[in-house]
Write a structure and sequence with these properties.
With about 260 residues, this protein is an alpha/beta fold. The chain contains 6 helices and 11 strands.
């Protein structure tokens, strides 16, 4: 019997909110059709939930509602599934909750009057195997979570991918941090441990990054031939996918459709 090759498509944080471009959900669906992964893992922060952000000023929160935020994420999910219609054999879909979805839980904990009215179950996650915030789960020796954290402080590990790999001691993939960072090391027993950090799965601009952070790597990543925590990594940037599926350069596409580039 031929051995099943594990191929995992990793989707970084999509951070959907009202008014942001959603074209990349169509591109990701096309990637699934073309590259045929056995698994899809979304690293979390799909529902951005700016209405519940403790970092936003009162001015920034004007005209923002929880219902608006939830509908924005649900609409993006609906668009994603729409473009997967007709696929005979779908991969296994895993969705992590990130710290942005966790804003709902924390807000409800502080406002008990919302009990049985608002919860994480309000989000439309049909079709996904959902993993709670900070949970770690593995596929073929590669372990996924929204972010790895210091067990003694509860805070996300900072530093380089090499540093985080050393701290966790296993092959790991996480989102949360903008851009793309990779590390690998070989063990004396011949195993290979890898660390992949990818947190930019969106097309819009995040204002909090400021004028000196105009560009970071954005896209999805295919992990091919996954076995024992090792894999071959194939980057599929949104620049590449826009050129492939829209026949235009990404900045030109965004400027023509939305009035801005990245």
């Amino acid at each position: 019997m031929e051995k099943l090759l594990i191929k995992i498509l990793v989707i970084p944080d999509t951070q959907v909110k009202q008014g942001v471009p959603l074209d990349h959900f169509k591109w990701i669906a096309k990637c699934i059709k073309e590259y045929k992964p056995t698994h899809v893992v979304h690293l979390g922060d799909h529902w951005d939930m700016p209405s519940l952000s403790s970092y936003s000023s009162k001015k920034e929160l004007q005209n923002k509602t929880v219902l608006q935020d939830i509908r924005a994420g649900d609409d993006a999910m609906a668009l994603f599934w729409k473009h997967l219609k007709g696929v005979r054999k779908l991969p296994e879909f895993h969705l992590l909750h990130g710290n942005h979805e966790d804003r709902i839980r924390r807000y409800c904990d502080d406002n008990i009057v919302l009990d049985e009215f608002l919860s994480l179950e309000t989000l439309n996650t049909e079709g996904w195997i959902v993993h709670p915030f900070k949970e770690v789960f593995g596929i073929a020796g590669v372990h996924f979570t929204h972010y790895y954290y210091n067990a003694y402080t509860g805070r996300a590990y900072g530093g380089s991918a090499e540093s985080i790999l050393k701290n966790i001691g296993i092959s790991g993939v996480m989102g949360h941090r903008q851009g793309k960072f990779v590390a690998a090391r070989s063990t004396p027993t011949g195993d290979v441990h890898r660390m992949l950090i990818v947190g930019s799965g969106y097309l819009h601009k995040e204002g909090y990054l400021g004028p000196q952070a105009k560009e970071s790597w954005r896209g999805v990543v295919m992990l091919n031939d996954v076995e024992g925590g090792d894999y071959d990594m194939m980057e599929l940037s949104y620049r590449y996918l826009c050129r492939k599926y829209e026949k235009k350069e990404l900045n030109k596409f965004l400027v023509e459709k939305y009035g801005y580039g990245i």
